[in-house]
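The data layer described in this paper is built around a simple, fixed record for each protein. Such a record has a labelled line for the sequence and another for the backbone structure tokens. For reference, a complete record is included directly beneath this paragraph.
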Amino acid sequence: MLFKLKYEHLDCSYEILLNDMPIITYFGLGERSDLTVDINQYILKPGKQEITIRMFPAKKEENLFVSSLSKNSFVKIDITKNKEPMTMLDQLNAKSKRNEYKWETLVYKTPQLEKPMPYSEYKTSFEVDAKDINWKIVGWSKSKKLINDPNIRREVDEFYDNYKKVLEEGNQNKFLSLVRNTIYEEAASKPWNKEIENQLTKNMSDYAVEKRNFIYPCKKAELKFFGNGRVVTLVCADTLTFGYSSLISKTAKNIMPKSHTFYLHKPEGSDKLEIIR
């Protein structure tokens, strides 16, 4: 099965987490609707899958957030599953039944706020049947707890500095070694597609050699912990790039800035930070 999450919002910034891992983060201008993301790689085992929605005030201008959420603020999610790959018979049935070949797993909309407030959080969940998950990935489930590690800020800063240096050098092999495990787990969560790992590796190889300039130096970066304290990332607290990675770059091919977001953990039996998502 391929699990997908469709999301939309109004009048807010927000984070959507699955099993305490961020799948959507939005602190930008404007509204989003009917966008979809694959979520197989965040489902580590069958059973209850926990969703957390954190709502923050909307961004009013490039350097300004409003003071609170409004009564109109909401986030809505729709989780579906469908067969992958679809056989010829599946496709014929899908055409005749329109969208009925997709099984609706969860529809959830945050309740209307009774009054303006600076923050609101909601939790919901859905079930994944054992027969619908034929992949085995460890993810962050056995990783070391990082949240109380006194050296973690220094180690994260060093990792980010090295990541930036590898991209500035355009070193494909070093970059692939940094993202190797996240490529493997994303591919393993889509076991019907035998070519996906090769394609992801090629995409990352091409990505590593694009000439890029790092812009918007973040003067105020903070640690954020996820995965029940087993995963850490670095986010910017400056208003312009608030909530996003402290590493932002532009390339000659693409005028849109790229936020380099990744999540670090220490695998079981290791004392070295690695990218897990």
Notes: The mean pLDDT is 92. The chain has two domains: 2-132, 152-275. The first strand starts at residue 2 and ends at 10.
